[in-house]
Amino acid sequence: MLIHRCAGCSEPGVDLCRRCRFALVASPPVTTASGIVAATEFSGLGRELVVGLKYRNRRRLADHLAEQLSRRLDPTQIDVITWAPTSRQRTRRRGYDQAELLARALAARWRKPCRRMLYRSHGPAQTGQSRASRLIGPQFSARPLRHPPRVLVVDDVVTTGATLHAAEVALLAAGARSVILAAVAATPDGPPKRGGPHLARPVRTASASMPRGLHLVPSMATMSGDVA
């Protein structure tokens, strides 16, 4: 009963066996309709690994998933890495925030700084919510940034894109020079584009049309197009 098993195929051995590691590397990236790049699709092996990290306390899987995500992004366009925090209730229940584990594992691989830059307003987690509720998304705040960095925001799974886009809005309003959004997996609920670019999405930058002190709220019309 205490035998350690592969999170992908349940074979006795390490966290991720050689065969599953090769299968993960071979899986194509997925680009959502809103331009967010995910390392893999949230189905099959990708789903098993994310579920293992998120619900089964298999924290070491964060290293494997971060390695896969690192293949989809360009570290030269990133100054600092952060994550889209989950609700406090779920963090207390699990003992960790899976998005933070992924962000820190990726930062260690790239030798980039990783900081908590986003703070989630009180409210239910996205998991288990209806699609209409997901389109509204959570609300985030960010402290003003003195030296505008190029920020990468990491999440575990992207469905509608509402969570990551809300994070993007908060960071740009706080003074980030640019924001790149990325996730480990994308749900196959919509028509994803496979084999997307090796950049999380077209970089959104602060400009004259968006004053730094202005906190914008994405409209329902904008979010309705974010289909994973």
Key attributes of the depicted protein:
globular, 228 residues, two-stranded antiparallel sheet, 32% helix, alpha/beta, Rossmann fold, 8 helices, 7-stranded mixed β-sheet
Task: Describe it.
This protein is of the alpha/beta class and 228 residues long. The chain has a single domain (28-223), classed as 3-Layer(aba) Sandwich (Rossmann fold). It is built from eight helices and nine strands. The strands form two sheets. Strands 1, 2, 3, 6, 7, 8 and 9 form a seven-stranded mixed sheet that branches. A two-stranded antiparallel sheet has the order 4-5. A hairpin with a 5-residue loop joins β1 and β2. The longest helix is centred in the middle third of the chain and has 13 residues, at 98-110. It is globular. The protein starts with 17 loop residues before the first helix and ends in a 5-residue tail after the last helix. The relative contact order is 0.19.
Please outline the helices and strands.
Layout: H1 18-26, E1 30-31, E2 37-41, H2 44-55, H3 61-70, E3 80-83, H4 88-94, H5 98-110, E4 119-120, H6 131-136, E5 140-141, E6 150-158, H7 162-174, E7 178-186, E8 193-194, E9 204-205, H8 220-223
User: If you consult CATH, what is the topology?
Assistant: Rossmann fold
Number of strands: 9
Distance between the termini: 38 Å
Overall spatial form: globular
Please tally the helical runs, counting DSSP H or I stretches of 4 or more residues: 8
Structural class: alpha/beta
Beta-strand portion reads: 15-25%
Could you name the ranges where pLDDT drops below 50 across 5 or more consecutive residues? Answer: 196-202, 207-228
Q: From the alpha carbons, calculate the radius of gyration and give it in angstroms.
A: 17 Å
Q: Major sheet, described briefly?
A: 7 strands, mixed
